[in-house]
């Protein structure tokens, strides 16, 4: 008798917490108490993002489709709120197409921009660091002057459905653990981050157009 394989998941989970900006001029190990266990600069580079949607069908469902420096990406929200977000990331055009089809009924290819329309185009100067060997800190400055930062954890995850624990439940549990770790990290090094309510780059972009 042939055994039926259980549903499985293999992909990247990302959890992030946003902040307005840094509360210090330079991000180094010795400019606050307690000191970072380690801090390593990843440098600075330019990002060009083109965002796509169709009558807000995707963004209203918590899905963001973009071309980042020419490469297609999808971020599928899996919980949290704007400041404290949890995502599953897709980079395979087939997975992105399937995600769009499931939400909108549109079946199209990457060559046809998945049947979507451009809603925003912006450039960003990104500075990034790795703190305590695993927490990625980024600070983005957009070409129209807005600044926002993120503390991120990413994990390659592999799950298989099991008795009493679906794949989605396993994802949520893992992302909650990741979020708890980021919260503790930002609390420990609160001297590094400006207080206040951060504003996302797309929100600031659209507000600029309507100002």
From TrEMBL:
GO MF, any single term: thiamine triphosphate phosphatase activity
SUPFAM superfamilies: CYTH-like phosphatases
UniProt-listed Gene3D superfamilies: Hypothetical Protein Pfu-838710-001
CDD domains hit by this protein: ThTPase (cd07758)
InterPro entries: CYTH-like_dom_sf, THTPA, ThTPase_euk
GO BP, sorted A to Z: thiamine diphosphate metabolic process; thiamine metabolic process
Protein name: Thiamine-triphosphatase
Organism: Melanomma pulvis-pyrius CBS 109.77
């Amino acid at each position: 008798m042939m055994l039926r394989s259980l549903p499985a998941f293999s992909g990247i989970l990302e959890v992030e917490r946003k902040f307005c900006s840094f509360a210090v001029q330079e991000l180094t190990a010795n400019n606050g108490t307690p000191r970072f266990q380690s801090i390593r600069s990843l440098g600075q580079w330019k990002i060009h993002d083109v965002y796509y949607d169709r009558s807000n069908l995707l963004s209203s469902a918590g899905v963001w489709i973009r071309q980042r420096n020419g490469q297609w990406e999808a971020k599928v929200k899996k919980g949290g709120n704007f400041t404290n977000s949890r995502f599953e990331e897709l980079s395979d055009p087939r997975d992105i197409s399937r995600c769009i089809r499931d939400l909108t009924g549109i079946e199209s290819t990457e060559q046809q921009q998945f049947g979507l329309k451009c809603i925003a185009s912006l450039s960003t100067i990104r500075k990034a660091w790795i703190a305590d060997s695993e927490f990625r800190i980024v600070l983005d400055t957009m070409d129209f002057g807005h600044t926002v930062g993120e503390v991120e954890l990413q994990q390659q995850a592999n799950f298989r459905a099991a008795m009493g624990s679906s794949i989605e439940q396993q994802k949520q549990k893992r992302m909650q653990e990741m979020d708890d770790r980021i919260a503790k990290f930002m609390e420990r090094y609160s001297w590094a981050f400006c207080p206040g309510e951060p504003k996302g780059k797309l929100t600031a972009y659209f507000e600029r157009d309507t100002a």
